[in-house]
Amino acid sequence: RSARELRTALGERMTAVHPAEFSLHTPNWLLGSDVATLNTAYQLEHAGSTLETGLMQVRLERGLDGWQVATVQLGPAR
Fold this sequence. Notes:
By secondary structure, the chain is an alpha+beta fold. The protein has one helix spanning about 5-15; strands spanning about 20-25, 30, 35-45, 50-65, 65-75.
């Protein structure tokens, strides 16, 4: 899925319980010369209650203009 589709889907889940907070845990970076990957857990909360947790993975690729986001995966655990 595209980053835009993921952002839209997450936004729809968040607006159902406005205001919701989206937080990221400590990221784990895997760095290569042309590819970098960020893996982290995320949490969606409202009024002190956890609504959703999951894992987010972002893959970056080095291009002529610098690093660019190639893919974003957001996998809800619950």
